[in-house]
Design goal:
By secondary structure, this protein is an alpha/beta fold. Helix content is 35%, strand content 14%. Strand 1 and strand 2 form a beta hairpin. It is globular, with a radius of gyration of 15 Å.
């Protein structure tokens, strides 16, 4: 597998679609956060698909938002999914449609939640099935293979919860 974009991420489609942890997940300083964001921008990420609730008043408002570090050089698209939760079918379809539009426009896309395991794996799994890069019976092993480059959580099952795994396995090709 191609080298990962960062030590807390992996390529779903090398050079085009990446997934992983919140860009500042373990930042000790704001400089660390900027380094992660800068590296993602350097490898071609033009849109950050943020699945967290990091807005003021959200359940993850404690996260240090990275929008300022991007400074207009990429877009941040928010599709909130509760931690350990699953979206509706319509919400997942909207997320996948957005990713596909960005990729078709030539932008690299980085999908993330907080740890890059549960919500992120759910989106990645559905995207893989949509594009016939996995089927319901092998999607979890396909995700695991792609996640091997994630130095922090490669050994975690993704998606994280049984409800998330069931949601992915039930996803239909082309949806």
């Amino acid at each position: 597998m191609t080298t990962s974009p960062t030590n807390r991420s992996y390529w779903v489609v090398p050079g085009k679609l990446a997934a992983g942890a919140y860009p500042n997940r373990h930042s000790v300083t704001s400089d660390d956060q900027i380094d992660v964001v800068e590296h993602l921008l350097r490898v071609g990420i033009g849109d950050f698909v943020n699945l967290t609730q990091d807005r003021p008043g959200g359940t993850e408002s404690h996260l240090v938002r990275y929008d300022q570090a991007i400074n207009g050089r990429a877009s941040v698209s928010r599709f909130e999914i509760p931690d350990f939760g699953i979206p509706t079918v319509d919400a997942m379809t909207a997320i996948l449609d957005h990713i596909d539009r960005q990729l078709a426009a030539g932008l690299g896309v980085y999908v993330h939640c907080w740890a890059g395991v549960g919500r992120t794996g759910t989106v990645v799994g559905c995207w893989l099935i949509r594009h016939q890069l996995a089927q319901s019976d092998n999607v979890l092993s396909v995700i695991a293979k792609r996640r091997e480059g994630n130095q922090e959580t490669a050994d975690h099952t993704s998606p994280e919860t049984e409800a998330q795994r069931q949601f992915v396995r039930a996803w239909q090709t082309g949806r």
